[in-house]
Each structure stands twice: as C-alpha cells, then as structure tokens.
Amino acid sequence: MKKVVKLVSILLALMVFVVGCSADTEKKSEEKNTSKQDGSQYINLTMIKPTTINPILNNDKSVSYVLNLVYDSLFEFDENYNLQPKLVDSYNISSNNKSIDITLKDNIKWHNGQSLTASDVKYTYDLIKKNTDSSYYSLVSNISKISVNGSKNLTITFKDGYAFSLETLIFPIVSKDKLDNLKSDKLKLASNNLIGNGAYKIKTYEDRNYMLLELNKDYYDLDKNNNKKEVYVKMVPDNESQTEMVLSLDSDVSRVTLGSISKFVDNDNFVINKYQGRNYDYVLFNYDNEYLKNLDIRKAISFAVDRNSIIKDAYSNRAKLTNFPLNSTSVYYDNELKPLSYNTENANNYLKKAVLSLSKTDDNKEKDTTDDKDNTDEEKTEADDKATNNKENTSDKKDDKKDSKDNKKGRYFKDVTNSEVRALLKDVTFKIIVNKNNSERVKAATIISNNLEAIGIKTEIKDLEDDEMTKALDKKDYDLALIGCELPAVSDATYIIKQLGYDDKQLDKYLNALQNANSEDEIKSTYKTLQKYVKEKAIFISFGILDDYVVLNGRLDGELICNDFNVYRGINTIKIK
To answer: Fewer beta carbons below 10 Å: N end or C end of the chain?
Structure first.
C-alpha cells in the first residue's frame, strides 16, 4: 500500500496521553480545599497536577480535558465523533487531498483582546514539530508546510494525499505573541501560558494547588444559556483521587472508568452521563490455522457466538454492540448492514459446508467467490433456516443448492451428516487467549467457549498475564484472541483492519481506495463497500465500543455533551440547583 499507510500506523497512537505525575509529598490536610468551602460559588473540577499547562507540551489527559475549555482548535469532533469547524470560517480541499485553504473566523480573540491570526496557527504547527514528544506530534507528521496568506488565510500543504487529513487539524492553537522566542524551559512555565482563546479564561493559577477559570464574555461561540459560573479546578495526585473527590462531594464533575462506575450507580447524589468512548474490543483469528483460513469455519464461529449475550453478561450492558471498528454514531458507520447474528442453525449449516470445502483437493484452500456470491450465500442460508418469508425461502433454497454444491462429489451441504461434522472436528481444539486482568473479556471468553462447544467445537481458554498475552500474540500462539484497542483519532479504520492478519488483495484494494478518497461521499461509499466485504469474509468478530462515563454531582442541573476528546463540553450551560 502507499506511503499513507505509514501515516495511519502513527495516527493509531494519537491522543494516548501519559497519565502520571511526580510523587505528592504534601499531606491532604494541608492542601487548600477551596471547592468544599466555596462549593456553591463554583463548578468544581479536578485534574492531575500538571507539569505544564501549555496545551502543546502537556501529556496528561485529565489536564487536556481542562485546557480544552481554555483553547480552541481549527476543527473538533462533536459528540458523535463527526468533524466540525471550530476556529475555521471556511475551507477548501484540493482535488488530490494534498492541500487545504483555510479562512479563519473574523471575531476570534485571545483572552488579552488581541486577534487570533493565521500566524498563530503556523506558530503552533512549528512548535509541535519541534517537540516530538508532544501528544499532537502524530497529527502534524504528514504536514509539509503552512503558508500564511494574510491575517485570516492560510494554506496547509501535506506530504501525501490522505482522505482524513482534515481530521488531523484538531490540535489547540496557542499564541505566537506570548510564546515566540521563548526557550524550551520557559515555554512550560504557567506564567507564560495564561492566555488562551477558548470559552474560559484563566483568572487565577496557583502552582500545584488549583486553577480558577472564568467565562470569556467575548467568546465568539458563547451559548446564550451560559451559567456565568466560575470553574474551580483542584489539582490532585492521580486518577483515583479524582474519583474519590467526586464521591466525597468535593468535586462536581469527573470522568470515571468502567471499573469505578458501580460506586455511583443507584446513588441519588450523582447523575451519570454515559457516552460512547473509543476503546474497542474484538476477537482476532489466527490465519496460520488451516481451519480458520476456511470461510465456512469462520462463518460457523461467527454465527455461533452470541454477541448480544456477551454485551449483556460480560460487559453488563456497558458497551455498544458494533460490527466494525468505527464509532456507531459516525457518518461512516453503516447502521443498515445486517451482521452475522447469533444463529445456531446457520452455524451448524456452515460446519456442514466446511466438511465439503475442506475435503476438496486444492490444498484445503478457501475457495474465493465474488462479493455478491458470498453475501448471497450467507444471507440466503440464514433466511432459509429462519423460514421467515416463503417466497424468499423458495429462491434461497435453490441458490443454497447452487452455491453449496461440491462440484467434485455432487453433494449439497444439507446432505452432510452430523457424524461427518463430528469427524471433521474430532481433532480440533481452538485455543482462546485472554488477558486475565480484564474481567469483561474473561467473561466473554467463557461465553464464546460455551457457544462453540454447543456446536461441537472444542476449546481451551488460556488466561494470561499482560506480558504473557503480548508474547502469545507476537508468536501467534492462539487460535482466537480476545483483545482491544483504542480507535485512532481520525475516522480511519485501515490500521486496525490491516492488523487482523487477513491477507487479501481485494481487501487491500478497498483500504487503499478509502485512504485516497477525494470527498466525504466517496469515503462513505468506500466504507459501505468495505464494511460489507469484512462481514462477508467473516474476517473477525466484533464486540463493540465500550461506554465511558462522566459523573456529575446531583447539585448540578444539565447534561454535558461528551466525547473522548472533550468530556467537559457544555459545562458553561450547566446550572447549579
């Protein structure tokens, strides 16, 4: 594939912030707790003690969430993970995806009253390029240069054409006037980073203690329903402290992990905002296994696995069932595509088909068929087995016989006996590996094992420690692996699909077409084809996107518009009861 694939592999790591800080030697009793004393006056937040509040140099996600209130970016993702202009008034993408002309909004001002200009954007890009450890460095790796064409106009030129280049322009813009010519150590000082361009201004900053934000009355996008409340941000040593401060009512709002959310359920003191995160869980097939190279075997497994039960019983309904590594709210996700849903009759029928296809003499290779034929076979078999439509069933049965006939033996899959299936599976035991420290996936592995045993496929589950799991994946010492990843910041699933290990020229063709699409409509069309193909080939088993949570103190009235990039969006409209 083209050089752009290298870009996507870098983008996968985008926005994975390093969470940590230096040891906290202060006693909690000695820390100023303004939030508890003045709780009615402020909306109280927390963040881990920052090493810097320069948004380009910060590498802590909790700090980034707060700084999103102070700094805006050219574009941002909305609550559905779809891109929206922020500081941008208009833009035009070249036909080869190699440049973007941007016009900034006229009414953008820094918190000191100066106008934000195209030079600030260029300076921000240059600052990121100089700091390779910046969380935003991956975003600008494909940018060749930024040309300033007046105070509000700029042209961004890219090294390679890439369909998702616009989505990489989500880094916060900092002030050239305040930071230019400062040495690296000075760039990190809080005193040099008190001027932003966002909805909130930094009113007070006390190092390693707290930060006080006030609403920016001159903000270009100020909501008329704003609450005018100041935001008090307490600095704490770690994520656990953030959760504990919400529980003790010392903090009003905090992002809470899946493992901690049970502490807040059924507690009238709190309101839980649930939103779709970017952590994605799925099952990986080992294509070194000759059985798993067979399409019929993979479809049998796919139909046998009860994904709804996994979401309900393993994930406690705290995940969104999806069929592809995209947020289900994305404009590129195909919600109309019918998945390979749990159906033991279909699973058993595909095992019978596997008896025929694996008995062929062409080195047991999976017979490749056209996209439409594969799709027709699967959908018609399912319709036939369910007998939901007489007319459809009649034609399906004919097509089933046509598509399922073994040309050499003149047999149909329905002629295959159960004893032949048992003979096929007699020496087959699939090894399922899972990280023992992930309780949801461990439960999911048990459900999958039971599902496969129910259709006659033997399994063994290996619960592994972190390092053991990594080694097993590297050595491909598994048949099925329950794993997870963070979706990349851009809406490009190419890297994840490539990591599935399915070697297929047609798949590569679709992925290449996706990355080189020249319009949103072309991306949508290509994604639709790609998602259909991945389903037809049963390339992997998708569980879904894990839910994320923000907990609000019950004294607040309103709802945040969250996504994984910005958990405090809409806080300026939250009221205090």
So the answer is: C
Domains of the chain, earliest start first = 4-252+555-576 (3.40.190.10), 278-547 (3.10.105.10)
- Residue 156 is inside which H or E element, if any? strand 153-158
Rounded distance between C-alpha atoms, residue 451 and residue 470, angstroms = 26
Rounded Cα–Cα distance for residues 420 and 387 (Å): 25
> In this predicted model, what pLDDT tens digit does every residue of 462-511 receive, in sequence order?
999 999 999 999 999 999 999 999 999 999 999 999 999 999 999 999 99
As a whole number of angstroms, the distance between CA 433 and CA 472 comes to 8
Please give the helix or strand (H or E) that residue 552 lies within, else none.
strand 541-553
Burial degree of 355 (CB within 10 A; 0-12, 13-18, 19+): buried
Q: Are 431 and 460 in contact (CB under 8 A)?
A: yes
CA distance 365 to 358: 8
DSSP 167: G
- Tell me the pTM: 0.87
> How many angstroms separate the CA atoms of 443 and 52, rounded?
41
Contact 60, 67 (CB under 8 A): no
Pick left, alpha or beta for residue 524 (phi over 0 → left; psi -120 to 50 → alpha; otherwise beta).
alpha
pLDDT tens column, 75-123: 999 999 999 999 999 999 999 999 999 999 999 999 999 999 999 999 9
Sheet architecture: strand order including 143-148: 88-93, 99-104, 153-158, 143-148
Alpha helix ranges (H) inside 190-312? 239-247, 295-304, 307-309
10 Å CB burial of residue 29 (0-12, 13-18, 19+) is exposed
How far, in Å, CA of 201 to CA of 411, rounded?
Answer: 75
Q: Which helix (H) or strand (E) holds 374?
A: helix 371-386
